[in-house]
Amino acid sequence: MKMIGIGDNGIKGLLPQYIDWINNCDVLVGGERHLAFFPHFSKEKKVIRGGLSKLVAELQHETRNVVILVSGDPLFYGLGGVIAKKLPIEIYPYTSSVQLAFSKMQESWHDAYIVSLHGRSIKGFAQRIDGRKKIAILTDDKNTPQVIASYLKYYGMNEYEVFVAENLEGDNERCCYMTLDEMEQAEFSPLNVVILKQRHSVKRSPLGIADEEFHQRKPEKGLITKKEIRVLCIQELQLQEDSIVWDIGTCTGSVAIEAAKIARNGAVYAIEKNEGDLENCFRNQAKHRVDITAVLGKAPDRLDEFPDPTAIFIGGNGGNMEHLLETCITRLIPGGRLVMNIATIENLADAVKYLKNLGCEISILQAQISKSKPILNLTRFEPLNPIFIVTAQKGNDK
């Protein structure tokens, strides 16, 4: 069984050996567009439609000579990686769409960040690409160049110039540079690749964004996890690039936003019971180039809408601590960590009791921090409210 990559130029781009294999096979498999390149093939043609499980099941019992046609490089966001794990197959790649696009752009691509939005949600795209100098994007009929342009503009990513390559090597090939505004208004063929290149360098925010950089409730400021405490809590969460994080009582979204910048290939889910605070969370996401899922509600309600987390931060429990912690620890993956901020010794005692009953390993950090503040030509220290940072790690056998 052979898998052969093919371009939009059809048979013209294939080696003579590949053409012989195709002409002499018993079953030719591919999408309708690929099969149309071989109108005179007289044996069985099998069109790939929908999921791959049915196709793999059929091919597992196939004893005839089979050739599968796929676009470009089968191992580059293609069928090759999936089918090669299930069936004995030989793979013969063609040039990938991204390679062709960069060649038309006359730009090197070894330093590019490549991301596929083909058949995938655009959620979280902002933090994945923030600060990257060169990005290649595979699109689909939902995540079109127009949608991508609107998305980038919403998150203030106006530093990029755009190169769009359509119908590469096909009869209607078109490649051009444009602005985000132009891409938002233009029409494109369904077969396209979008390349973003920074016109000027943009630095990502470091860990510990200043409190003043977040939209907060007015006139009642202060409902935010302060920068110094925030950094300590995020360190305790021990986040990885692919972490799945819950932020309960997110308020301004400060912890969720900083977490998403670290877990940029994972996902962050936040819940907040106050509509005004949630609106500020949305505004802060746009400002700080972070695209997370944030919902209105009081935990543990609506937590069943989130996937199981690897890390949980609780900034406020709303007076329902025991039920909330039981829900969180039950859903937390084995070995995962829960971090919560507590202001009173009574709540601290309750939290420790509940978490021990749930079989967690617990550590507590008491943070008493003062910051310098000028007074005339002198300097004094102003204390932040003291806080207990409780970290619970779930056992690996739970």
Keywords for this structure?
13 helices, Methyltransferase, Cobalt-precorrin-4 Transmethylase, Domain 2, elongated, 5-stranded parallel sheet, 398 residues, 3 domains, 7-stranded mixed sheet, alpha/beta, Cobalt-precorrin-4 Transmethylase, domain 1, Rossmann fold, 29% helix
Task: Give a structural overview.
This protein is of the alpha/beta class and 398 residues long. It folds into 3 domains: 2-95, Tetrapyrrole methylase, N-terminal domain (Cobalt-precorrin-4 Transmethylase, domain 1), CATH 3.40.1010.10; 98-198, Tetrapyrrole methylase, C-terminal domain (Methyltransferase, Cobalt-precorrin-4 Transmethylase, Domain 2, 2-Layer Sandwich), CATH 3.30.950; 211-393, Rossmann fold. It contains 13 helices and 19 strands. Helix 2 links the parallel strand 2 (27-30) and strand 3. Helix 12 (321-331) crosses helix 13.
The chain-level structural class is alpha/beta
Residues in β-strands, percent? 25-35%
Count helical runs: 13
From the spread of the alpha carbons, the general shape counts as elongated
CATH class of the largest domain: Alpha Beta
Q: Could you give the topology of this structure?
A:
Layout (H helix, E strand, L loop, with lengths): L1 E5 L9 H9 L2 E4 L1 H4 L8 E4 L5 H8 L5 E6 L8 H7 L3 E3 L4 H9 L7 E4 L8 H5 L4 E5 L6 H10 L5 E7 L7 E5 L1 H6 L6 E7 L28 H11 L6 E5 L5 H9 L4 E6 L2 H14 L4 E4 L14 E4 L6 H11 L5 E6 L2 H13 L3 E7 L2 E6 L2 E6 L3 E7 L5
Parallel strand pairs: 1-4, 1-5, 2-3, 2-4, 6-7, 11-12, 11-14, 12-13, 14-15
Antiparallel strand pairs: 7-10, 8-9, 8-10, 15-19, 16-19, 17-18
Helix pairs in contact: 12-13
